[in-house]
Amino acid sequence: MYRFLGFMFLGCLLFCKAEGTIHHYDFVVKESNFTRLCSTKSMLTVNDSFPGPEIHVHKGDTVFVNVHNQGTYGITIHWHGVKMPRNPWSDGPEYVTQCPIPAGTNFTQEINFSTEEGTLWWHAHSDWSRATVHGAIIIYPADGTSYPYAKPYGEQTIVLASWYKADVMEVYEEAVASGAEFNTSDAFTINGQPGALFDCSTGTTFRLAVKEGETYLLRIINAILNEEMFFGIAEHNLTVVGTDGFYTKPINTEYIMITPGQTMDVLVTANQPASYYYMAASPFSDSEAAFDNATTTAILQYIGNQSAPSPIPLPALPGTNDTTAASNFTTKLRSLASSAHPISVPKNITKHILMTVSVNLIFCPNDSCSGTPDGDRLGASLNNQSFVFPKTDILEAYTRNNFSEFTTDFPLEPPIYFNFTGDVNVTVYAEQGTKVIELEYGEVVELVYQGTNIGNAQNHPMHLHGFSFFLVGTGLGNFNNQTDPDNYNLIDPPEVNTIQLPKKGWSAIRFVADNPGVWFLHCHFERHTTWGMAVAIIVKSGGTTSTSMRPRPAYMPPCPNS
C-alpha cells in the first residue's frame, strides 16, 4: 500500500534540495498471522506482507515514508545503503539517530537518494525486528540514462530471510536476559517461503517464470539475521553486475556469496532446456558458533507445457565451511569505473584508524549471568570497546551538547597490540561504554578492520551508515602497515556499504568524511550488534550550509527512558 505524488511541494522546496521526483509511501507496522513449517504465528510486518513493500525510485529522487506503528512496542526503520546527505535524522538506528517510534504513533522519514543506483533495502533497526520487517529499495537509472548493460527482459527481487517458529522478540529477550548465545532460526526463506525441502512447504515454494532465451535481472538481498549465504541456480551461470547500489565489472560465476546486509544485482539467461530448476541458498559458516544449516529453495520455471522433472535439479553450492569458495568470489568484486560511472578513490589519507573486531566476554559481578559456565555474558567489541546503547539517542544528545550520554574518546587503535590472529595472551573481557569517533568534515579516512582470535573467530559483515566506501585491500593474518598497502587496489576497488571481514584477517576501506551527522558502524550479524560490536561516528559540520547537518525536524520520536 503506497501513494505516489509526482510533484515538488512547498515544504521540500523550503527545506531540502530534492532534484528528482518526490514519492510518498505509507508503512503500517502491525502484527499479522503467517503459516510456515506447519504452524501459524503472529509476527510484526509492514502492510501485512513478508517481505515488506518495495520502494521504487530513480537515481536522485526523494521519498517520504510515513511509518505508522500499530504494533505493541517501539520500532525504527533504516534505509540501508542510502547515504542520506546531511540528514541523519531519518537514518533510523535506535538510540543512535532517533528513539523508537512509540506504539500507537507515527513518524515521517525523508529518504534522500544521491549517487546510489541499483538495489538497496530497508529494515527495522531496533532489537531483532528486522527479521520480519524489511523490504527492497529499487533505484532505477536517472531519466535520460540507462543500465551499463543490455536492458533485461524482466527483473525479480529475491529476498533471503530468516524464519523462526518462535516469536523473534522472545528469542531476543531470553538471550539478552541470560547473556547466552541466541537460538538459531528454524529455516531460511526466499521471498517469504522456505521451499520444498521443508515440511508443509511444497505447494508454496516461490516460482519465477522465465521465457526461454531471455535475460532477467535478479535483485538479491541478504536480510538473514546471522548467516552469510551461498546462492545459485541449477545449471545456469550468473553474471554479477552490481552490489550495494553501485555497478561492478561483470563477474561470470556459478554461485555468489552474499553476507547479511549486502545486495547484489545478478543477470541470468534462460538458456537451458525448458524445464524446472531450483534456485537455492545455503549458509557459509567458518566458526564454531551454532548456525542454521538449512537450504532454502525456489523454482526457476520455464514458460511452457513441460512437466517438472523428478527430481528437480539443485545447484551444486559450496560446502558450509568452504572458505576458499567464499574468498574466491568476494575477491573478484571490482567497480565498473567507466566513463559513465566513474569513481574517485581517496588517496591522501589524513586519518588512520586500526580497529580490532572481536567476540568477547562481559564480566558479570558475583557470577550473576548464565551466559557462560563462569557466570559471565557473551559480548563483542571494536578495539575492545563493547558499545552500550544510551537512554537518549546520540544525535539528539550531540545536537544539544549533552555529553552525559556518550564520550568522544573511542580509541583509534587497539589499546594493546598483540598477535591478533595467533595465540591469544590478552584478556577476553571487553570494556563497556558509549564511546564515539569524532571526525572533522572533509577528513580522508582509511579504516583497517582487524579480525582477532579472541573468543570465537569468524567472518564479520561490517556495515557503515551514511557512506559508501571503497574496499581497497583485504588479506589473512595481521595487517602490516608497511607492506600490505603496496597491494591495495586503488584503480577499481568495489564501492560498497557492507564488507565481509575474513576470519582472522583484515580489510581496509577508504572514504571521505563529507556527510555531517551521526552515523552507526556495526557488524550486521544481529547477535554481534546486540553484544556490542558497534560504534557511532560523528562527522562535524563543515562551516557552510551545504557542508552542515540539516536542522532538527520539528518532531522526533520521544525517548522513553530519558
TrEMBL record:
Reaction(s) catalysed (UniProt annotation): 4 hydroquinone + O2 = 4 benzosemiquinone + 2 H2O
Domain of life the protein comes from: Eukaryota
GO cellular component terms attached to this protein's record: apoplast
Keyword list, A-Z: Apoplast, Copper, Glycoprotein, Lignin degradation, Metal-binding, Oxidoreductase, Repeat, Secreted, Signal
GO biological process: lignin catabolic process
Cofactors, names only: Cu cation
Coiled-coil intervals: none
EC nos: 1.10.3.2
Gene Ontology molecular function terms on file: copper ion binding; hydroquinone:oxygen oxidoreductase activity
InterPro entries cross-referenced by the UniProt entry: Cu-oxidase-like_N, Cu-oxidase_2nd, Cu-oxidase_C, Cu-oxidase_fam, Cu_oxidase_CS, Cu_oxidase_Cu_BS, Cupredoxin, CuRO_1_LCC
Domain Plastocyanin-like: 29-142, 155-304, 410-541
Subcellular location: Secreted, Extracellular space, Apoplast
Pfam families listed in its UniProt record: Cu-oxidase (PF00394), Cu-oxidase_2 (PF07731), Cu-oxidase_3 (PF07732)
Cofactor binding note: Binds 4 Cu cations per monomer.
Signal peptide annotation: 1-20
Protein's job: Lignin degradation and detoxification of lignin-derived products.
Record's protein name: Laccase
Species lineage: Eukaryota, Viridiplantae, Streptophyta, Embryophyta, Tracheophyta
